[in-house]
Amino acid sequence: QLYFPALSLWFNYYNNDIRMNNIKGILLSICLIGIGPVYAQDFNVTSFMDTEDATQGDGICADASGACSLRAAVMESNAIGGMHEILLSAGIYTISISGMNENSALTGDLDLNADITIIGVSALSTFINGDSLDRVFHVLPGNNVSLSFLTIEEGYANPGNGGGVFNQGSLSLSDIHISNNACELIQGGAT
Questions:
Q1: Residues 65, 88, 178, 115: what is their CA dihedral angle, to the nearest 10 degrees?
Q2: Fewer beta carbons under 10 A from the terminal one: N or C of the chain?
């Protein structure tokens, strides 16, 4: 039996390299299987109050009392950018901070300036009410927004379009009720 040390070393190296590449490929495949969208930050809303986020951009949804309101979750999502999921409980979330014509969600409507998914429990139990102070949602250009399992009601845009939702980006609606909204220009409808 002949023995060639250089050939033997190359063969062992080559086989180990192939094994390592196979292992790396298998591990990468395992990591990627079944992964859906990766969200930058998810927020569970814990308050029905309409309050601002205390410190925008820190990755924490918390108003001055430490609670996470819908407005605080939207403001924090806008501040840190990326994809976000905001989860709502059953109940009524009423907009109560009056003001119009700003796009930072500080007052009036909830301005969505990031890729945000907002999920309620059902359209029969999760309500976002504009209280006729302003429209309810404003999807700003360049953003992908998904709203599911909730009712959007009592929004009012004056002047403007979209009493319930004014969409300038990409909007997906699933299991949604949009009712009792109004706008003065009536070019974009009450929704």
A1: 90
A2: N
* Percent of the chain whose pLDDT exceeds 90: 69
Q: Are strands 126-129 and 91-94 parallel, antiparallel or unpaired?
A: parallel
Q: How far apart are CA 180 and CA 27, in angstroms?
A: 52
Residue the block writes with tokens 């501040």: 79
Write the pLDDT tens digit of every residue in 20-68: 555 555 544 444 445 555 557 899 999 999 999 999 999 999 999 999 9
What letter would DSSP give residue 58? S
Report in angstroms the alpha-carbon separations of 121 from 76, 93, 110: 22, 13, 19
Residues linked to residue 152 through DSSP beta bridges, in sequence order = 128, 178
Pick the residue with more confidence: 43 or 13? 43
Asked whether the predicted pLDDT for residue 69 surpasses 70, the reply is yes
- List strands edge to edge, sheet with 137-139: 110-112, 137-139, 165-167
Q: Which residues of 74-85 are buried (b: 16+ CB within 10 A; e: fewer)?
A: bbbbbbbeebbb
